[in-house]
User: Fold Nuclear transport factor 2 family protein from Nonomuraea spiralis.
Amino acid sequence: MALTLEERVAITELIAMHGHLCDSGELDRLEEVFTVDVTYDVTDFGQEPLRGVAACAAAGRALGDLNPVGHHVTNVVLTEQDGGRVRALSKGIGVNADGTTASVTYEDVVVRLDQGWRISHRRVRAHRAPLGG
Assistant:
């Protein structure tokens, strides 16, 4: 069954909400975006994957002033998968306090729970060279 327009909007807003919660320091609300047992894969940054929403919140707090002041997400592409899952690709732009920026790709698996859509797995891929180099 094809995703409805309403489902596409809900998933896109879900992906956008991550940045709003992080930028406002509302890390205790990350369960509104992620499943409780989310895997947040940051191995591309030389770190172990984070397991669980509490670990994601703790990692954000531990970064403190090294967190971006702005998380911006664009270019959301949704693809249905088996089992009611949705693959979501999006681009993230991080703006740091000193004005520098960085670009990533978010590779998400989104699932529907009783509470609505949530990200159950996120891989963050850093972009360090043009053309995927």
